[in-house]
Amino acid sequence: MNALELSGVQTRIGRYDVLHDISFSVPEGGVFVLLGRNGAGKTTTLRSIMGLRAPHAGSVRFRGEEIAGLHPSVIARRGVAFVPEDMGIFRSLTVAENMTLATLRGRFDGARLEWIHSLFPALKTFWNSTAGGLSGGQKQMLAVARAIIEPRALIMIDEPTKGLAPAIVDAMAEAFREIARDTTILLVEQNFEFARSLGRDMGVIEDGRIVHTGTMAAFAEDRALQTRLLSLSV
Amino acid sequence: MTKLGPGGWSVRLIVLAIGVALLLAPFLFPGVRPIQVAARICVFIVLVASYDLLIGYTGVVSFAHTMFFGLGAYGTAIALSQSDASWGALLIGGALGVLAALVLAVLIGLLSLRVRAIFFAMVTLAVASVALVLASQLSGLTGGEDGLTYSTPDLFSPATPLWHDAAGKTARLFGVRMDGQILAYYLVFFCALLLYLLLLRVTVSPLGTVLKAIRENEARAEALGYRVVAYRTFVFGFTAVMAALAGVLYAIWLQYTGPDTTLSFEIMVDILLMVVIGGMGTMWGAVIGAAALVMAQYYLRDVMQAAAGATAGLPLLPALLNPDRWLLWLGIAFILLVYFFPAGIAGTLTRREARK
Question: Taking a C-beta distance cutoff of 8 angstroms, is the pair B73, B250 a contact?
Answer without folding.
Answer: yes
